[in-house]
Amino acid sequence: MKLCLVLGLALGLLVAMPSASAADGTFSGKITDPPGSEPAVKGWIFVEGMNHMLRRVEVAHAAIVFGEEVPASQRRKCDSECLSPGQEVRITAQQDSVGEWRAKRVEILSLTTRMAEKPLEADTLPNFTLFRASPQITNADRFCIAPSTEEI
Fold first, then answer.
1. What is the CATH number for 72?
2. Number of domains in the chain
3. Among the four residues 78, 93, 97, 143, which has the most C-beta atoms within 10 Å?
């Protein structure tokens, strides 16, 4: 009886241990927009790896840090709102019981290159409008096209 109880307890602990302490995983990739079928959800991002595998990652509770590759002048204190499509990131996360990735740490490796913040003004664009009147045929009665005399 005691032996069965001890073996049952040991087996129960062995089965429960892996789920209680899942190992952290680290992966990197580029943040992308959600696929067409997925709505954007605050606190969640999609990361596309080098193998084009797409992972959905919860980042709402993660520590967001800048990597050494990012110049100090571009670093600032930020949360998950700082993460945007195009950034390259390294993520340390755990998978929960349903397979969702829950990030503990997100390291921004490179920032997106943004277009100019200020839109172009109309006067800075080239003006291709002709300022002269469009050409007109002034002597329409003398206008004709001569037939070709060249033989082929």
1. 2.40.50.140
2. 1
3. 93
